[in-house]
Each structure stands twice: as C-alpha cells, then as structure tokens.
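User: I'm curious whether this sequence folds into something compact or stays loose and floppy. Could you predict its structure so I can see for myself?
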Amino acid sequence: MDMVDMKMDKSESASPVEVAKCCDKLSGSQYPYGLEIRLEKDSLDKLELEDCEVGDFYMVIAKCKVTSTNESERENGDDSKCVTLQIVKMNVKDMPDMNDSEDVSKEDRQKKNLDDAEEIMTGKKGY
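Assistant: Here's the prediction. I'll summarize afterward.
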C-alpha cells in the first residue's frame, strides 16, 4: 500500500478568512482539518506511549469503522463528500533506532523515521 502525502498544496490551502470562520487555531497548518489524532492519558497508557517528543515520528496502524458518509451537490455545481472513520483498534510504534540516536541530528532522525515509515507502509520493510 502506497503512502499518500496529505500535505495541502496551494490550491487546497484555506485563505485566512476561511480559516477564521472555522478553526482559528489551525491557521498555518500544512494539513487539512480532521487529520490529527489526539491521544489523552488513558489512551497513551493503553498504547504504552511514554516520552513522546515534539517532532518524533511514530507508525500508526489502525482499524477504522465508517460511522457516517455525506455527499451533497449544490445548484452552482459545487459538490462535497465526507466520510467519518472511527478508530476501533490501533497500535503505535516508535520508529526504531533513530529517535534515540545521539549521533544524528533531530532533523536527520525525523527524515529517517519518515522514510522507514513509508517503507513499512509500502511493504518494502517488514515489522
């Protein structure tokens, strides 16, 4: 399975006015609203996640259930489609070796972890 980069390009990025209408805190985000997973203490404990640092990369594997779908068409030709996924089972794995290496810069660790994650998702690297 190929990984898809979800970063918004310029044509997808919301204007400051559009962002202010909905989610003021999201201004400047590179990714669309709704692609973030927030884990609270109970979930972190279940997943045995400790010592997470900003900028670290983790592999998330999840089983999701479609809980709603919505599709609409407007008179002016605009249409929209939305699917809500409820995560029912998941696991989060630290990317090996690179998060703890002191010999490598944090930026290099992050790039290596992202490359490793892509290899795992595409089946080029087993786990």
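Summary: The chain has three helices and two strands. The CA atoms of residues 98 and 105 lie 10 Å apart.
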